[in-house]
């Protein structure tokens, strides 16, 4: 049984006239009649009663007509879905994101994706850079957003965002009300720093910024994530040096103070599997990730 035979049968069942059905199908009547007869022979069921005066459906034909419509509709949907997926109009894209990218980079990417790939579902996973590189190579992520240039071979990469550090202090802290701040104002101030184990790029950038400003930071506490950092700062355990985009979190109890460009900075890269990237991934890289994100 072939799909075209179902289409032939449904068309004849709609018209109840072989000549009219043949015209709709852009074929001659004899081959159409032969195909319907072959379908009935294969099924061992009479679907149509035809004589010189009329063509009508048998009970079996009416039941088969309804099911054939469902099958043909499902096939049309399947074909449309496949074509739209191939074109990047629908489907799911798995994206990894380092935590510092959640506040500014991710919203920008989502806005661009909504404009250029409105039917695409985006699944985001908060994940460290090294884990993302591994997940991309295993095919668990389509695209990763990481802190450092991956050294692993087989990964494509493109810089997408650069940002500097800013100071965050507890509300009511003397540095919160000072008219202007410089990074050197943190000299001797206890700091809440990111754990190097969990955020090596942030830790190294913070250290580089302080050393370039002429002092060694006093690291009194360490935190694994921004929420812990902000809570420690809010509790008065110290100040912190964090990426500027963290200020977009809008958390109460802490104050963010701009200090201009710092020697240390955060560079984010998009990564993807070079040899096995799908057409969709390469379109997203080209249309969404190739344009650097401004702060």
Automatic annotation (TrEMBL):
Entry GO CC: protein-DNA complex
Alphabetical UniProt keywords: DNA-binding, Plasmid, Transcription, Transcription regulation
Superkingdom classification of source: Bacteria
Pfam families given in the database record: HTH_1, LysR_substrate
Keyword Transcription regulation: yes
Domain HTH lysR-type residue range list: 1-58
UniProt-listed InterPro entries: LysR_HTH_N, LysR_subst-bd, WH-like_DNA-bd_sf, WH_DNA-bd_sf
A molecular function GO annotation: DNA binding
PANTHER family: HCA OPERON TRANSCRIPTIONAL ACTIVATOR HCAR, TRANSCRIPTIONAL DUAL REGULATOR HCAR-RELATED
Family note: Belongs to the LysR transcriptional regulatory family.
UniProt-recorded name of the protein: LysR family transcriptional regulator
Species name: Cupriavidus oxalaticus
């Amino acid at each position: 049984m072939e799909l075209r035979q179902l289409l032939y049968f449904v068309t004849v069942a709609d018209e109840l006239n072989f000549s009219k059905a043949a015209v709709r199908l852009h074929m001659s009547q004899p081959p159409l009649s032969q195909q319907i007869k072959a379908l009935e022979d294969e099924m061992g069921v009479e679907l149509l009663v035809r004589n010189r005066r009329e063509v009508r459906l048998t009970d079996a034909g009416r039941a088969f007509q309804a099911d054939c419509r469902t099958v043909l509709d499902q096939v049309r949907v399947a074909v449309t879905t496949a074509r739209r997926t191939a074109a990047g109009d629908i489907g799911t894209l798995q994206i990894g994101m380092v935590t510092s990218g959640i506040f500014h980079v991710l919203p920008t990417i989502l806005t661009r994706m909504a404009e250029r790939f409105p039917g695409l579902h985006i699944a985001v996973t908060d994940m460290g850079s090294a884990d993302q590189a591994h997940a991309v190579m295993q095919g668990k992520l389509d695209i990763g957003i990481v802190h450092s240039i991956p050294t692993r071979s087989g990964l494509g990469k493109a810089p997408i965002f650069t940002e500097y550090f800013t100071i965050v202090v507890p509300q009511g802290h003397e540095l919160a009300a000072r008219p202007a701040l410089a990074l050197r104002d943190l000299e001797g101030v206890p700091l809440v720093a990111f754990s190097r184990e969990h955020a090596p790029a942030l830790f190294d950038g913070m250290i580089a910024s302080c050393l370039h400003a002429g002092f060694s930071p006093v690291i009194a506490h360490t935190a694994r994530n921004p929420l812990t950092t902000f809570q420690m700062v809010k509790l008065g355990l110290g100040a912190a040096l964090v990426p500027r985009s963290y200020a977009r979190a809008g958390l109460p109890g802490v104050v963010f103070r701009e200090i201009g460009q710092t020697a240390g900075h955060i560079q984010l890269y998009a990564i993807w599997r070079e040899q096995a990237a799908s057409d969709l991934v390469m379109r997203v890289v080209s249309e969404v990730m190739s344009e650097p994100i401004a702060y």
